[in-house]
Amino acid sequence: MSISVDDTATASAALQEARARIAELEAALSRSRTVGMALGIIVERGKVTPENALDVLRELSTERGSTMDDVAAGIVAGDIGVEG
Length: 84
Known about the structure:
The protein is an all-alpha fold. It is built from three helices and no strands. Helix 1 (5-46) crosses helix 2 (50-64) and helix 1 (5-46) packs across helix 3.
């Protein structure tokens, strides 16, 4: 059984695409975890419900002109304060 150059190139391209997709999914999972941690911080410090915490995160995002992911990361890092 022989493998052609075309078969190798196709397999290599598929592997490269799969690796890129895995990296995208890992980044999305990391952002999701960060948002979840930020929501927990908002619930605890802001004394609000989880539903209201999401509203708070959205409002902060809008006020700052940043993505919710960036605001969440700032909350988790302690760069953005959340008080009740």
